[in-house]
Amino acid sequence: MKTIEEYIKTLSLEEKTAQLYQAAAFYIKATEAENTGTLDDICLSKEQLYNVGSILNVSNVKEIKEVSNLCVSGSTAKIPPMFMLDVIHGYKTIYPIPLAMAGTFDESIVEDCAEMAAKESVAGGLQATFAPMVDLVRDARWGRVMESAGEDPYLGGVMGRAQIRGFRKGGLCSCVKHFAAYGAAEAGKEYNTTDLSDYNLYNFYLRSYEECMKEKPELVMTSFNALNGVPLNGRTDLLIDLLREKWGFDGVVISDYRAITEMIAHGFAEDEEHCAEIALNNEVDIEMVSPSYMHYLPKLVKEGRVSEEKVDRMLRRVLQLKQKAGLLENQCPKANEQKENEICLSSEHRSIVRKAAEKSIVLLKNNGVLPFKKTDDFFVVGDMASEKDVMGSWRAHGKAKDCVSVLDGLKNILGDTLQTDGDIAVACIGEKSYMTGESASKVDISVSKADVDLVKNLHEKGKKVVAVIFAGRPLVLTEIEPYCDAILYVWFLGTESGNAIANILFGNAMPSAKLTMSFPRAVGQCPIYYNYFSTGRPKKKDDYHRAGDYLAAYQDEYNAPLYPFGYGLTYTNINLSSLQISNTEIEENGSLTVSVLAKNEGEYDGEEVVQLYVQDKFGSLVRPVKELKAYRKILLKKGESAKIEFALTEEMLRFYKTKDNFVSEVGEFNVFVGLNSRDCLMETIKRI
Q1: Is there a contact between 389 and 433 (Cβ–Cβ < 8 Å)?
Q2: What is the mean pLDDT of residues 258-283?
Q3: Which of 119, 241, 246, 687 is most buried by a 10 A CB count?
Q4: Spatial distance between the Cα atoms of 230 and 235, rounded to a whole number of angstroms
Q5: Active-site choice (106, 135, 256, 389)
Q6: Average of per-residue pLDDT across 284-288
Q7: DSSP letters along 625-670, please?
Q8: How far is 435 from 441, CA to CA, in rounded Å?
Q9: What does the pLDDT read at residue 37?
Q10: Long-range contacts of 190-197 (CB under 8 A, 24+ apart)
Q11: How many CB atoms are closer than 10 A to CB 550?
């Protein structure tokens, strides 16, 4: 077997180029078809394609082996290609969308699910996934919020790291995306431009990517968007100065799908050759699908516009990744069709995703109607009651036929005794899976008129209404909330959706999840988020703007969200009291202890997420009204109390002030502890 350095010395410039190109699987398969018109799209020959370094979007082990054999037998370099796929929330056994998973506030569940998905993926012949997606999101109109952890940078980093650890345990390489600030798409419109001050960029939008670097992910993906006028593949300051040099990332940088040549449409690059020159000099190691490297890299090197030393450095990273995946020794090192069939959708894997689904359901309202007893007289209505496609976007190889609907789940508990008429209506409503995800932005995220009419009619008939709402984003629930006795926000939960929902309805599992995006009262509030600035004229009361107020408020709606970040109810009643801080002062590199008493005063055992927030009251730059700094998920039995403690360090008080300068400033800080970002106990400390 050749060493990496031997490959670098012996490969031709054209062979090196091919290793830096990622092709879609259908291009490789088209080389064997009688009609190869598909290849006209990229203008590459069979010989060029057979030498490619990596391939995306394959459907099964058989296809991976077929495509790999084509490449190895037809290539001159004889280096097996690497196979990658968007395994975002499951491979065949699908768990909840990432936005829902983040609401568990439980890294262990996230890690377990990622490990499970990795095991299935590796048996299916994959070596890498394009996850985690850790873009900060504040606008629910953007369809890809479903892939994220929500509006808080700290939580996004925690959940991203958990995914990386899980994928690695299962043997799958991970790719942090989309670098950078892709989630700040203007007006929530897909692929839109982003324009952020350095203050916003460094304090909010870059933090989760940086946190993920601590887990040493194998890849980072650049984003489609232009940031402050420059497409990301042209941002030397971010790709080289920050990511490579300051953060020390030494893995592979890969572009998003055709993002390199999209610099032409942005109006930043003149032509394909210019695109290749820009991206190569920023050391984007792999070009995904668009063929500018294949067309122009050798020419650019020969003309001295890109150094071969740089190309070799990029190639070395790609080959190191392949070596880690075992591809320099074996063609398909861990692909195992028999194992794939044994573990995918196995009872063990279904159990893992069912638990994750139960922990992801958010109870938004409950007037005592939940949990059900088996003797309760209820019936089920709504388009989503029998829907089996409950996986949401980016379901990899998940199939609707393998999923459990709400009706299926209820029958698994009750048998065939479901009623068609009763006192309580379970209204299964919301979005279909295809309504969120990439290229699914909306100007109106209100509940549909049909669903509003259904809920209102049930209420007018004297029924108690339990709304079970499916969605991949926060929806505007203002029109239906007054008519609901209980609201379960179930997102898209995946393969075991119906069983999880039924277990929550009957109290076989207890709701404990929280919202990681604020829910607007009206679409016009978007973007809306908890860690906002107060402005010079803050609205002190949560009511409408009145003529003559001249305050930062809407005239026709409340400022506050319908449900705030961190909000979610349980079936019990856990109260917080006795907030104490070990010292009223904190110095540089110092720490103190924040404690609170939690007591379960309800009728059930239950889990809660105790959240710690901080506000820098006065600074040389204005600071948010609250920022999440830590949380603790606790389980308390009925009547049980516990003292919950947090370590608050001076480092947690720091913010980005100027380039390379994160500081905490002398002055007062408010410390909040609560069960959501709105309802908190508060004390004040002083940074000295």
Answers
A1: yes
A2: 98
A3: 119
A4: 6
A5: 256
A6: 98
A7: S-EEEEEEEEEE-TT-EEEEEEEEEGGGG-EEEETTEEE--SEEEE
A8: 8
A9: 65
A10: 190/142, 190/143, 190/144, 190/438, 190/439, 190/440, 190/441, 191/224, 191/225, 192/225, 193/225, 193/226, 193/227, 194/225, 194/226, 194/227, 194/228, 195/227, 195/228, 195/229, 196/227, 196/228
A11: 9
**Helix, strand counts (H, E) of the chain:** 20, 25
Tokens for 384?
């989503």
- What CA–CA distance (Å, rounded) separates 67 from 73? 10
* Confidence at residue 34, expressed as pLDDT on a 0 to 100 scale: 52
d(CA 595, CA 581): 6
pLDDT band at 321 (very low <50, low <70, confident <90, very high): very high
Q: Which residues of 182-197 are buried (b: 16+ CB within 10 A; e: fewer)?
A: bbbbeebebbbbbebe
From the number of C-beta atoms within 10 Å of its C-beta (0-12, 13-18, 19+), residue 165 rates as middle
Q: Is the dihedral of CA 254, 257, 258, 260 positive or negative?
A: negative
- CA nearest 627: which of 605, 648, 601? 648
pLDDT in tens, 337-369: 999 999 999 999 999 999 999 999 999 999 999
Q: What distance in Å separates the CA atoms of residue 592 and residue 687, rounded to the nearest whole number?
A: 11
User: What residue type is assigned to position 137 of the chain?
Assistant: V
Active site residue 256: yes
| Residue 519 in tokens | 């829910």
In contact, 74 and 50? CB cutoff 8 Å:
yes
The Cα 438–Cα 3 span in angstroms is 40
Per DSSP, the residues of 284-296 read: --BEES--HHHHH
Question: Is a pLDDT exceeding 80 seen at residue 36?
Answer: no
DSSP state of 569: B
**Whole-Å CA distances, 658 to 18, 152, 194, 662:** 41, 22, 21, 7
d(CA 456, CA 514): 26
DSSP 100-127: HHHTT--HHHHHHHHHHHHHHHHHTT--
The per-residue pLDDT for range 69-128, each reduced to its tens digit, is 999 999 999 999 999 999 999 999 999 999 999 999 999 999 999 999 999 999 999 999
Do 418 and 448 meet the contact criterion of CB atoms below 8 Å apart? no
d(Cα 538, Cα 316) in Å, to the nearest integer?
Answer: 54
Angle at 416 between CA 412 and CA 418, to 5 degrees: 95
Predicted TM-score (pTM) of the model is 0.97
End-to-end CA distance of the chain: 61
Set out the domains of the chain in order of their start, with CATH numbers.
16-85 (no CATH), 350-525 (3.40.50.1700), 574-687 (2.60.40.10)
> What would the pLDDT profile of 437-489 be if each residue is shown by its tens digit?
999 999 999 999 999 999 999 999 999 999 999 999 999 999 999 999 999 99
Range with lowest mean pLDDT among 37-51, 360-374, 515-529: 37-51
